[in-house]
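User: Could you check the structure of this?
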Amino acid sequence: MTTKRVLLGNEAIARGLLEGGCQVMASYPGTPATEILPALVRFREEEGAQIYIEWSTNEKVAFEVALAAAYAGKRAAVAMKQVGLNVASDPLFSSLYTGVKGGFLIIAADDPGPHSSQTEQDSRLWGPMAKVPVLDPSSPQEAKEMVPYAFALSERYEIPVLLRPTLRICHARQTITFGPVKGPKRKARFEKDPRRWAATPRWRYRLHQELNRKLEAIRREYVNAPFNGAFIGGRPFDPSRGPFPLGVIAAGSCFGTMKELLEELELEVPLFKVATPFPFPFELLLDFLRSCDQILILEEPDAALELLIPEKGRVRGDSTGPFHQRGNSPQR
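Assistant: Sure, the predicted structure tokens are below.
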């Protein structure tokens, strides 16, 4: 019998950690990410799972606790709010070069608005800067499903993966379908390799080359990722029905808001969901762009997707109007 329960987005993420086989989880509290750790504690007790969980001294310490477990082959996760990743940026950048052995998930919860933060920074932009693969969920259910996917992706390419939920995903409630708890359980085993784990600049150059190769392979894999997609009127999008006067590209909570609006108004406007913003598989968008005369991009808080679209003349979004790069989508 399938179990369903109404959960916060953060609780759904915690459930995904349990189902994905997470063995070590560290966090530092801060809205909108705080509820992830206590929710995982509750699920651990319900299922009798063996997971090490800690509140760390700060985000950098939390990152390094989880990273050490991933170095030793365990599936591990760290959770923090968006400004916390600033504190953890030193090990973040280095970990992309060294890579990991066990799946390593970085959860950075953004706060467009802001509601409880110093800044409205966009964690998707760590993608091209640190060269970390990014996943951007559009609902609590999708956030849960992305967690096991991210663990598997991380292990295939031995690379950390960033999950970027926003406040309207973290604190939304949705009926969540539970899956089995069957992730791999491993004993820690550290493989000594000074050229990787303690690399000097000579070897860092080679690790950087390897990182670039990993990102290109992930970009190709993202083409078939189950989370991206184009729709019109509640159906899969068919570009042969075009041209259309307007197409909308949306990400995160903006996708859900736009989807509900189009359904309520009974408007047949092509809508493309981007859930894998980096490394972005641009070929997914080609047919969509060709079949739409004008493109509207909905995202928050910054123009991360808009930067990826080369045809600026017919694109409207955060940097080109009608929106401004501040506030969450309902405030604009």
